[in-house]
Write a structure and sequence with these properties.
The complex is a heterodimer of chains A (118) and B (112). Chain A is built from no helices and eleven strands. By secondary structure, chain A is mostly beta strands. With 112 residues, chain B is mainly β. The chains are: A mainly beta (118), B mainly beta (112).
């Protein structure tokens, strides 16, 4: 199946700093990638849809200036948490859809990035 | 938009028993219903999915049923094993959209 990687797997930073998370589709191209946030024992909350070559589409309530998304190529999307604060601490997961054919709507998830802001 | 409700939030069973997790959805335009298994600290992984032109699908110990009229679908796990312990998420995608709406998750605990 399609493989999605994320880097870093975990990061600890000081309040006020910015953190960049990378999401890569390793064996397929993805014009669209998705960024989710997951709090402990809760569901996946869609933050934004990352579109290659154009602006990301943010879900209601998600600050686009806080969570910067760049989808510079067909295999890479980045999420930058700017001026991070402790309340931004969470598990961030990206996903992508393999558009080559039979997998239809199936989402392939990255392994996630655990962000802790001190 | 789509709204997916999932029950129960926690399910505890003995090894060998069956487990059933139920989801309802609100938008009749939804036509794709995947189920994901997420172990602690790991990524969600697709375990089975069903499309709206099918009423039931089975893969070894796992089966999913779909009732389009009632707008609900269920995951059935038979002969549960301790390694089945995880959080299970249902989801629904509206036709033409590739963005699933997830249920809140069910924490399944299988006691040996």
């Amino acid at each position: 199946g399609a493989v999605v990687s994320q880097h870093p797997s975990w990061v600890i930073c000081k309040s006020g700093t910015s953190v960049k998370i990378e999401c890569r589709s390793l064996d397929f191209q993805a014009t669209t990638m998705f960024w989710y946030r997951q709090f402990p024992k809760q569901s996946l909350m869609l933050m934004a849809t990352s579109n290659e070559g154009s602006k990301a589409t943010y879900e209601q309530g998600v600050e686009k200036d806080k969570f910067l998304i760049n989808h510079a190529s067909l295999t890479l999307s980045t999420l930058t948490v700017t001026s991070a604060h402790p309340e931004d601490s969470s598990f961030y997961i990206c996903s992508a859809r393999d558009e080559r054919g039979n997998s239809y709507n199936e989402q392939f998830f990255g392994p996630g990035t655990r962000l802790t802001v001190l | 938009g789509e709204n997916v409700e999932q029950h129960p939030s926690t399910l505890s069973v003995q090894e060998g028993d069956s487990a059933v997790i139920k989801c309802t959805y609100s938008d009749s335009a939804s036509n794709y219903f995947p189920w994901y298994k997420q172990e602690l600290g790991k990524r969600p992984q697709l375990i089975i999915d069903i499309r709206s032109n099918v009423g039931e699908k089975k893969d070894q110990r796992i089966a999913v049923t779909l009732n389009k009229t009632a707008k609900h679908f269920s995951l059935h796990i038979t002969e549960t094993q301790p390694e089945d312990s995880a959080v299970y998420f249902c989801a629904a995608s509206i036709r033409g959209s590739y963005i699933p709406t997830f249920g809140r998750g069910t924490s399944l605990i299988v006691h040996p």
